[in-house]
Write a structure and sequence with these properties.
Blueprint: E1 2-4, H1 12-21, H2 28-31, H3 37-48, H4 52-61, E2 65-66, H5 75-81, E3 86-90, H6 95-110, H7 121-124, H8 128-139, H9 151-171, E4 177-180, H10 186-193, H11 207-228, H12 233-262, H13 269-273
Parallel strand pairs: 1-2, 1-3, 3-4
InterPro entries: P-loop_NTPase, Sulfotransfer_4
Organism: Alexandrium catenella
Protein name: Protein-tyrosine sulfotransferase
Length: 274
Amino acid sequence: QVIGAGLPRTGTESLAEALGILGYGWNSHDHCNPPTECQDASCHWLDTGDAGRLLRDIENVGMAYVTDEPLCLAYKELADHFPESKVVLTVRDNASAWLDSFALMQTLSFGHIPRGFRTQDFLKFGSRRQYCDQLPHVHFGCDIFAQPPDPAEREGCLRGYENHTLEVRRRIPEERLLVFNVKEGWEPLCKFLGKPVPKVPFPRNNHYMSELKRIRERHNEWIRAVERHQGMIPVLCRLMVFLWLLVPLVFRREAARGLRWAFGGLRPRKAARE
């Protein structure tokens, strides 16, 4: 019924929650997270251009609306397949604001990956799931993992965001399209969809980014703890090696003692003291 054509970091989570409040049921967020049939079908479509499998999956599970990647890139295929649907293109205040948010998301997720790494490189390490997860970024021209992006990367990402916005405007008829900044709240969205304005505030959902920040902070705390106690690392390593050698030795001695006792060669210590 509703197709979210906005790129990630344009308020897609807030839109998804808003559509749920308006009664549109469930959406693609959980269904298309890896590893799922939807993600596999999306990856196949992005690699080959064949959307048949993806459209069948969406139809079979009965999604009422789709938002965020990878399905935001399939807006034209979805709009053609579901001719009664409406398209909502979420946008940021400007391309630079979007890129700052997108680059931060990538850094929080992949801060350990060296600059110059590309989505295609995941296949070299046998990680097709990560490859498929990041493949949409290649298609909208922002295949980055480190912050800040270098000037060429930044220019490419800004151009990708702007081109996507222009393409959606060009390919979707005006009467089926709403260009929407979530800062605008309920009024334009409800008017476009023909729904009454809810009495609850418009959602400001940024849970995914908050979770990434929490995970990154825990990782940083662990690194700081290691750095504070780095002088103890050699000692701990030697202790672990000592225990690794000692435990089997003790086990072998006790096992041998038990065998000798079982065959009458050695009485238990307690019995000997008695």
